[in-house]
Design brief:
The chain is of the alpha/beta class. It is built from 17 helices and 14 strands. The strands form three sheets. Strands 2-1-3-4-14 form a five-stranded mixed beta sheet, sandwiched between helices. A five-stranded parallel beta sheet has the order 6-5-7-9-8, sandwiched between helices. A four-stranded parallel beta sheet has the order 11-10-12-13, with helices on both faces.
Length: about 400
């Protein structure tokens, strides 16, 4: 039996859309996953990757995000979520090259947190993030003007999710806000409400809403969604004045796919199943789940789960497959019955990694990610504020 069959996942033409240039009509509207998934790796590349990494020795440090394919994770020196990996890179000052097997905003964060002598490399520059791309610096500046015109900007504190561009992190730092992860979003919001009356949460509306309503008890009606594609965000000045949470209209193309139907279906198929989802999922999915938490929380929860227990996981499929393989004593299935990879994360494959390592070993710097000094300064202020959270 294959791993895909074990997870009760059925590849469909619809799933292939998510891996290519089209959007998935079952996910939220506006989601687009550009690019074609690279071809499967040649087995000879494994030896080439080992040889190139050995030639580089301690000069290279490879970071592997949890959503990467197994063939890439095999060569990672450390694995983790985006912020953990950026901090791991900063803790390795002897490494001249930081090869980040993740997506663009993660490599930017690593460049912000590492020293000037270290160079951060992204094996494929097309590995972006649809969520991060849903908030541009120009759009967010216009939003702040709207809040100013409504008379609420001076009592609003920006809180930006780690899954955002360096420009958005810098905006947050300029306006006295903080960055958060899915693990510390509750602490970040508590800090922000201690400083102001309202929060502008960027760019993932679901993490912001779920944290505010589920963890802080803020009424759902006090959360409004700012749509950057509508005049004044589609909101009146009165709505902005009445709201406590101003949520940016952004979302994850993977986690946005899971629905209440998915939860009800898996409960009907697997009696006693534990539904464990990421807080980037829609509010109705989070409300119906048994457990909600970050990627690290999901991994820890399954590590601690008793043998024989059944789990339906609402997060990226590469990680779910890896967890199922690591816990053969538990029944672990994907929450949705069709395949749902993070298509941009999957652009980092073994051919791209081999090309990167061999180029570096030959003395050729490729695909360097470098944040300009001013952006880095203000983005670092916001990141440091997160590190200072109680």
């Amino acid at each position: 039996m294959t791993t895909t069959e074990t997870l009760d996942v059925t590849p469909t033409p619809l799933a292939l859309l998510l891996l290519g240039r089209e959007s998935d009509p079952r996910s939220e509207r506006g989601v687009d996953c550009p690019g074609d998934l690279p071809a499967p790796s040649d087995p000879d590349l494994v030896e080439r990757a080992r040889a190139a990494k050995a030639r580089l020795g301690s000069k290279v440090f490879i970071l592997g995000h949890h959503y990467q394919r197994d063939e890439v994770i095999e060569f990672a020196d450390v694995t983790g979520d985006s912020f953990k990996l950026a901090r791991d890179a900063a803790d390795r000052p002897e490494a001249e090259y930081i090869v980040f097997c993740g997506v663009h905003f993660m490599a930017e964060s690593a460049d912000i947190l590492t020293s000037e002598r270290q160079q951060v490399i992204l094996p494929d520059l097309a590995a972006g993030c649809s969520m991060a791309d849903m908030a541009s610096a120009e759009q967010v500046a216009e939003c702040w003007d709207v809040l100013t015109d409504a008379g609420v900007a001076d009592v609003t504190v920006p809180v930006s999710y780690m899954n955002s561009s360096a420009d958005i992190k810098a905006f947050t730092g300029r306006h006295g806000g903080t960055i958060c992860t899915s693990s510390n979003a509750e602490r970040a919001l508590e800090w922000a409400f201690g400083k102001g009356e309202k929060v502008l949460f960027l760019p993932d509306q679901h993490l912001g809403r779920n944290t505010a309503v589920r963890d802080l008890g803020i009424p759902l009606e006090e959360c409004v969604v700012y749509n950057p594609h509508k005049p004044n965000g589609g909101l009146t000045a009165e709505q902005l004045r009445d709201a406590k949470m101003i949520l940016w209209r952004g979302h994850c193309s993977v986690h946005g796919r899971f629905s209440l139907d998915s939860v009800e279906d898996v409960r009907a198929r697997i009696p006693g199943v534990n539904v464990l989802v990421h807080p980037e999922c829609k509010h109705e999915v989070v409300s119906a789940a048994d457990y909600v938490g970050s990627t690290e929380y999901i991994i820890k929860k399954l590590d601690e789960a008793p043998a024989g227990s059944a789990w339906a996981i609402g997060t990226e499929l590469n990680l779910v497959r890896r967890l199922a393989k690591a816990h053969p004593d538990k029944q672990i299935v994907f929450l949705d019955k069709t395949v749902c990879f993070c298509s941009t994360m999957n652009r980092i494959d073994l051919p791209h990694l081999v090309w990167t390592l061999e180029s570096l070993a030959d003395g050729k710097l490729v695909n360097r990610i470098q944040v300009d000094a001013e952006t880095e300064h203000f983005a670092k202020l916001a990141l440091e504020q997160m590190l200072a959270l109680p």
